[in-house]
From TrEMBL:
It is found in: Cell membrane. It is a peripheral membrane protein. It holds the Pfam family oligo_HPY. This is ABC transporter ATP-binding protein. It comes from Streptomyces fildesensis. Its main location: membrane. CDD domains: ABC_NikE_OppD_transporters (cd03257).
Length: 344
C-alpha cells in the first residue's frame, strides 16, 4: 500500500472554465522521494494541500486521496486531525510565514508535543534538541532560546523541518521549500531533506517549478500542466529523454543546478488560466508540435508510450506514462529541448 495515493482526483470550482485538478493519480511509497513539477498556477500547491485533506472552499471534489490507507475525501474532523498531526507534515516556501515572530524557537518546537502529546517540558526539550541537531544547526541549545528574527532564512527553514518532524510523520510534503532561499542554502536544505528522508524511511513529495532540482533530489517525477499529470517517469528517464513537449520545454527553460548555464529558452506563451479551457490538449496553444485536427480535437490520455525508452522504469510507483497524441513520434529524444526553442 502506498503511503500517499491520489486516485483520479478532481477539484473544481463553480464559475471556472476548467477544473483546478483533473483526474490526478499519483503515488508516493514509504522511503520514496517523488517530485511534482510544473509552472505556477499548474495546480501543484492544490495537490500538496489535498494530501492533508485541505481543499479550496466551495470546490466539488471527485476521486480519492489516501494517506497511509486513510481516505481524506469526505473525511471527518477526527480523521483529518489524525493525519495532520501524525501521519503527514508540510514544509512551506517561506519559513517566516509559518512561525510566530514573538515566540522562541523552543516554544514553537515543543508546544504541540506538550499540549497534544502530554509530554513533560524536559522530555519535549530533549526531543527539540535532538531534532535541531538532526537538521544540522550549529548550536541547538542556544537556538532553542532564540527568536525567529535572530536566525537567517536558511536556519529558520531548518527549524521548520525540525518542527515538521516532531510528530514523527511518515510522509513529508514540501511545497517549494527552497524557493525563498539563496542558491547555496537551497542545496544545503535539499541535502538535509534527502538525508532525513533516507535515514527515517519517509515518503517525500517535493512540489517545485524547478525540474533540475526535482531530478537531483527525487527518484520519480510527475509533470503537471493545467491541472493534469502530463508525464511521469524516473528522474533519469525524464531528464535524458523527455517524451512530453512540456517536459522538454521545462528542461530547456530552467538553469541547471551545476555545469555551464548554456542558452535558456523559455516556453512560449503563458499557462492556461482557470477561465480558459481547450477541447483537445491543454498544451496545444504553446506546443511547437501541435498538429491541427489531432491535438485540438480530444485531450490525450495518460498512457504508457508504445516504444520503450531507456531500460524499463525501475520505480516502485509504477510505469512511465505520457499524455501526448504524438509522444511516440516526437518524444524520447534528448534534443527535444532545442526543438521547443522554435520561434513562436
Ligand atoms: Fe503538443 Fe499535441 Fe502532444 Fe499536446 S498532444 S503536447 S499539442 S503534440
Ligand atoms: Mg504554488
Amino acid at each position: 500500500m502506498p503511503l500517499l495515493e491520489f486516485n483520479d482526483l478532481s477539484v473544481a470550482l463553480p464559475a471556472m472554465a476548467r477544473p483546478i485538478l483533473d483526474g490526478v493519480s499519483l503515488t508516493v511509497a514509504a522511503g520514496e522521494a517523488v517530485a511534482l513539477v510544473g509552472e505556477s498556477g499548474s495546480g501543484k500547491s492544490v495537490t500538496a494541500r489535498a494530501a492533508l485533506g485541505l481543499f479550496p472552499a466551495g470546490a466539488a471534489i471527485g476521486g480519492h486521496v489516501r494517506v497511509d490507507g486513510a481516505e481524506l475525501v469526505g473525511a471527518d474532523a477526527g480523521r483529518l486531525r489524525e493525519v495532520r498531526t501524525g501521519k503527514a507534515s508540510m514544509i512551506f516556501q517561506d519559513p517566516r510565514a509559518g512561525i510566530n515572530p514573538v515566540r522562541r524557537v523552543g516554544d514553537f518546537l515543543t508546544e504541540s508535543l506538550r499540549l497534544t502529546g502530554g509530554w513533560s517540558k524536559a522530555r519535549a526539550n530533549a526531543r527539540a534538541l535532538e531534532l535541531l541537531t538532526a537538521v544540522g544547526l550549529p548550536d541547538p541549545a542556544r537556538h532553542l532560546r532564540q527568536y525567529p528574527h535572530e536566525l537567517s532564512g536558511g536556519m529558520l527553514q531548518r527549524v521548520m523541518i525540525a518542527g515538521a518532524l516532531t510528530a514523527e510523520p511518515r510522509l513529508l510534503l514540501c511545497d517549494e521549500p527552497t524557493t525563498a532561499l539563496d542558491v547555496t542554502t537551497q542545496a544545503e536544505i535539499m541535502a538535509i531533506l534527502r538525508r532525513l528522508q533516507r535515514e527515517r524511511g519517509l515518503g517525500l513529495l517535493l512540489i517545485t517549478h524547478d525540474i533540475d532540482l526535482a531530478a537531483a533530489t527525487c527518484d520519480r517525477i510527475y509533470v503537471m500542466y493545467a491541472g493534469r499529470i502530463v508525464e511521469t517517469g524516473t528522474a533519469t528517464e525524464l531528464l535524458t529523454a523527455p517524451r512530453h513537449p512540456y517536459t522538454a520545454g521545462l528542461l530547456g527553460s530552467t538553469p541547471p543546478l551545476d555545469g555551464p548555464l548554456g542558452r535558456l529558452t523559455p516556453i512560449r506563451g503563458v499557462p492556461m488560466g482557470l477561465l480558459e479551457s481547450a477541447p483537445g490538449c491543454s498544451f496545444a496553444a504553446r506546443c511547437p508540435h501541435a498538429r491541427p485536427g489531432v491535438c485540438d480535437r480530444t485531450a490525450p490520455d495518460l498512457a504508457p508510450p508504445a516504444t520503450a525508452r531507456i531500460p524499463a522504469s525501475t520505480a516502485r510507483s509504477g510505469p512511465a506514462l505520457v499524455a501526448c497524441h504524438l509522444a511516440d513520434e516526437i518524444g524520447g529524444r534528448p534534443a527535444m529541448a532545442a526543438v521547443c526553442a522554435a520561434p513562436s
